[in-house]
Amino acid sequence: MSKITTELLLERAVPRSTRLRKIETLNLSKLQLKTGDLDPRLFSRLRHLQKLDLSDNLLDKFPTSLTLPDLRVLNCNNNKLEDVTALKQFPLLQELTYENNVNLTLNDDYKVMFLLQNLRLLNGKDITKLADHVRRVNSRKLTSKVTAHWEKFFRDKLPEKHTAEQVKSIKKKFLKSVQTNVVYGPSSLSEFTRWRVKMIAEEFLACSLGLELNSDTEPEEKTDESEEETTESPREAAEEVAQVVTPSKRKRNHSKSSSGKKRSKTQANTKEEAAEDVSAEPLHFLQCHSKGNSREDFKTQLWSCVFEPVLDSGARKDPIVSSSRTVATCGGESVCLIDCETGTVLKKYKVATEEFFSVAWTTLTMVLSDSRKKAHNILAAAGRRGIVKLIHVAADFCYGEIKAHKKPIATVCFSPTQETHLFTASYDKRIALWDIGIPDCDYNFKASQLLVLETASIPLRIALVPTCPEQYLLAGCEGGCFAWNIKLDKGQKSRPFEAIFQFPDEESMTTSHRVDGLAFLNDDVVVSKSSKPGCIYLWSWSRSFDAKGKGCQRTMSAVILAELEWSTTDMSYLTLSTCPAKDYVLCGDEMGSVWMYNLSSYTTAWGSAKGKRSERRIPPTQILKWPELRVNGEQPAEILVNNVVADPAFTYLVVLTSVNITAIWKKS
To answer: Which residues have CB under 8 Å from 148's CB, separation 6+?
Structure first.
């Protein structure tokens, strides 16, 4: 029988408690506890535990799934610990002591400094500066050395068309060689260096070359389509990312264009409706943004996703072949990279004190240590803290940050023509343009602010005008839709808006409305969504904006081309997106559904100078209904679709929800 019982935990709480979930401080010292006494099922009920004393016991290691998501202080003095890597399950840990564990060395100190990003005190000493060096400089140097070792000794040994056996052989040889030959720092840290080199090398093989990591974890179970309800078990790779739920009896979706109660009789048999019914089936439902990796987290809001560009496709030339099946998603404290086909979470980046709202990709040509140039994809992520994180994905390295604003950043986007130019839109009512620079082989970089656009209200969505992305920027804001001249040769660094657009409002025109969705369908057609119930407008940029007019803050009437029929909800911040290559507009609703509009039969007419407004609202081509989905035997509560994005080839749909579920659909 275990030494630890519910009664013991309640008694040893400080102060004593009547419920496990209320305990914040717990003293379990001097109980002769062994590792097997720490029952994960019992400890998982200590959801709010912040301080834990396990000193003066007989622990030789930690169980890997204690599930203490809020643990901040841990005392393990006077035990028999032999390994510290299991401590990574406590990402919020700030103070750690494990003195008088004779088997632990300086190498273990460095391991916990790397694994625990929020650790400030180790064995009573402030390790903030040293830990930052370990996480940044040490990782940067080792990544550079590992990459150089592959390029010099192994790159040419892998045939372009390789077999599984060849991959297995070269991977084994590379991992052995790199751990033997990559040396950095003092000999007293050689164990830590080998540990990090192996980790970096495996990640390098998996991400840069597509060679799978040799993980100790079990592969995820495949879903039997005949089963009524199934729940896929979480993977323990990376940071216990879980693929949690599957729909009851997966079926291809052949839903009709809309539900009858939202359609008028005159719209029932339109040509547009019959033009194309996209057969799509749900592939994966992932719960990979959980706070503290909790499987019970169905509250984290997911906000932004964008597909990674393909490096060797001439990404800026042909949008249809410019995207991979890898998508970056963000929400809560994490950013994830997901393979849409397999549902595998390839990478996960966490900042415990952050809530990420937006992500964006760019491709930078970097100079390697041997002076060769190579293109790499860089991911920018930003959110509540007003800081932009810059991540070199292939190296699995967050190499820098830009303290862009003092208030939260709502959205970010890169210029399609200037790869280092990044726009950040913030709750401080400013949109800033940054040059993020190009990092050198040691990841040194210099960012500079080029421009500040003053907004009259909080900017929510931004879009560069496709025909002149270096001259005009549009923003949907809490108080309307605005345009700025962003040309850098004007000299004026801080600029007011140049135009505000009026839209129909019952019997008149108004500029005052929340615009929480904004995107270009093609070079001229803008799609914007108002918080007014069921209101998505398509309008012409060239016919609405008078570039020849003089002065700032001019009011212009948007030339409306059409209005889309959408949900009657007044729920805000359910944003829209477009797939320009396929003439599609996508928007989720408050019921978990995705409204899809194929507008290919309209765009030619809209392109003419005399193109007239469509007299009636255009119904959706199709509505993808949220499938019957069960989590722990129950259906999730209210599901809002915060965002939905298709890849340029229109193969995958990624749906981000308000209940911490990422849904991936695939076109059949």
So the answer is: 368, 369, 370
One fold for 6-104 and 281-308+324-667: no
DSSP string for 568-617: --------EEEEGGGTEEEEE-TTS-EEEEE-HHHHHHHHSTTPPPPSSP
- CA 505, 509, 515, 517 dihedral sign is positive
Contacts of 426 (CB under 8 A, 6+ apart): 386, 404, 405, 407, 408, 409, 410, 432, 459
Kind of pairing between the strands at 95-97 and 323-331: unpaired
What is the dihedral sign for C-alpha 168, 171, 174, 175?
Answer: negative
Q: What are phi and psi of 220, to 5 degrees?
A: -70, 145
HSE-up of 185 (CA within 13 Å, CB side)? 20
Q: How many Cα atoms sit within 13 Å of 183 on the Cβ side?
A: 5
pLDDT digits (tens, 9 = 90+) for 317-333: 444 445 578 999 999 99
Model confidence pTM above 0.70: no
Dist. CA 642–CA 573, nearest whole Å? 7
The answer to whether the bond into 416 is cis (omega within 30° of 0) is: no
Domain 6-104 of CATH type 3.80.10.10:
yes
- Give me the sign of the Cα torsion angle 312, 315, 320, 326: positive
For the record, the structure tokens of 323 come out as: 């995207």
H/E element, 328? strand 323-331
Cβ–Cβ under 8 Å, residues 499 and 474? no
Instruction: Tell me the fold of 281-308+324-667.
Output: Methylamine Dehydrogenase; Chain H (2.130.10)
- Strands 121-122 and 448-454, sheet pairing: unpaired
Q: Are 655 and 641 in contact (CB under 8 A)?
A: yes
Q: Is there a contact between 138 and 113 (Cβ–Cβ < 8 Å)?
A: no
- pLDDT at 536 > cutoff 90: yes
Q: Tell me the C-alpha to C-alpha distance, in Å, between residue 123 and each of 155, 285, 324, 381, 543.
A: 43, 42, 46, 33, 67
State how far the Cα of 581 lies from the Cα of 257, in Å rounded to an integer.
21
Tens-place pLDDT, residues 210-249 = 544 433 333 333 323 222 222 222 233 333 334 444 333 2
B/e letters for 294-313, b = 16+ CB within 10 Å, e = fewer, are bbbbbebbbbbbbbbbbeee
Give the pLDDT score at 548: 66
At 267 the pLDDT is 33
Q: How many CB atoms within 10 Å of residue 202?
A: 21
Question: At 240, is the secondary structure helix, strand, or coil?
Answer: coil
Domain boundaries, the chain: 6-104, 129-209, 281-308+324-667
Residue 332's region, left for phi above 0, alpha for psi from -120 to 50, else beta, is left
Q: Which strand (E) or helix (H) includes residue 207?
A: helix 190-208
Q: Which residue has the tokens 């008149």?
A: 508
What is the C-alpha to C-alpha distance for residues 620 and 631, in angstroms, rounded to an integer? Answer: 30
Longest dimension (CA), the chain: 85
CA distance 654 to 648: 12
Mean pLDDT, rounded, for 471-494: 91
Q: What is the DSSP letter of 89?
A: G
